[in-house]
Amino acid sequence: MVLYRKYRPQKIADLDIKEVREKLEKTLASNYRPHAYLFAGPKGTGKTSAARIIAKILNCEKLDGKSKEYEPCNNCDSCQAITDGRHFDILEIDAASNRGIEEIRDLREKIKLAPVSGKFKTYIIDEVHMLTTEAFNALLKTLEEPPLHAVFVLATTEPDRMPGTIKSRCVTFPFRKATREEVVHSLNRVIRGEGVKLDTKIINEIAEVADGSFRDATKILEQVLSEKIDSIEKLHMSLGRLVVSPEVFLWKLKEKKVRELLQMIVEMGSQGADFRFFVTSLLNLLHALLLAANGLPQTDVSEKMKGAYTSKEISELIRHFSDVYQELRFISRPELPLETAVVAWCEK
């Protein structure tokens, strides 16, 4: 089992983002639990994990719903089934691939049926902003008059793309990017669980590269452990950072040296670099350049780089490489989105 799933939070107290943890505690300890939750925030911050915890709390055999106790026992048959992903009454829907009105109509028909084995049917809809307008309209009718045995948990990385009518029917829980300290705390929990030792500098560097994502941090940690990486230099090599630095890459892009840039990408690919993390590094640097261009001091950016691009160009590049990052999720040749983006920019 991959580490991120193995060490996925199983109760409210396990959630690493304090504000989310405290708001959920207050909500679930009250007598006025909502029928629809909206978890909004960046990828890898624990939205799906929190949704499954809610499903456990609603269906835990040890909780009667009358006391102030809200943490699931994680031992009863219902909790175990949810942990294993085999509970009949917990339905997870990926709206990115099931975004049409037919899927939501099917949901509306089946939601009328009583739960098979649990107390509540819990519908977890991930990336809900991807639903079509027609599907949102169909979902709205269900959210307005849901059966007493149904609860919705909607998760999204882009709440601004959701209709206001949907958001107004939900209680919203903002999930922000995790701080470096929160990511380090999460990594240390995994490291203790695995019974291994790792240099503090490597742990801190993983937290930096992960850019506020618990999931990405744990994936990098798994890579570090599997490859027996024991130095910052080896970590950078594994992530493609020693092959090409983001600063050099952006400077070559400024000079529109397309041949050299493509050669860099080929070299990264030949050394097994993870392009997602490299593109993340580019976006982090562009973010710092954008702040510097608008008068916010950035000590980690060289004076040479600060004057390389205009504020407008930086904004365009951020959109450019954000698209590249999205494409990397679905493509079989990971170097292609970066190569085509470089060629497109240099041909402007």
Automatic annotation (TrEMBL):
GO terms for biological process: DNA-templated DNA replication. It comes from the Bacteria. GO terms for cellular component: DNA polymerase III complex. Pfam families: DNA_pol3_delta2. It catalyses: DNA(n) + a 2'-deoxyribonucleoside 5'-triphosphate = DNA(n+1) + diphosphate. One of its GO terms (molecular function) is ATP binding. Coiled coil: none annotated. Residues 33-185 form the AAA+ ATPase domain. Keywords: ATP-binding, DNA replication, DNA-directed DNA polymerase, Nucleotide-binding, Nucleotidyltransferase, Transferase. Its EC number is 2.7.7.7. CDD domains: AAA. The keyword 4Fe-4S does not apply. Belongs to the DnaX/STICHEL family. DNA polymerase III contains a core (composed of alpha, epsilon and theta chains) that associates with a tau subunit. This core dimerizes to form the POLIII' complex. PolIII' associates with the gamma complex (composed of gamma, delta, delta', psi and chi chains) and with the beta chain to form the complete DNA polymerase III complex. DNA polymerase III is a complex, multichain enzyme responsible for most of the replicative synthesis in bacteria. This DNA polymerase also exhibits 3' to 5' exonuclease activity. This is DNA polymerase III subunit gamma/tau. It comes from Candidatus Gottesmanbacteria bacterium GW2011_GWA2_43_14. The lineage of its organism: Bacteria, Candidatus Gottesmaniibacteriota. The gene is dnaX.
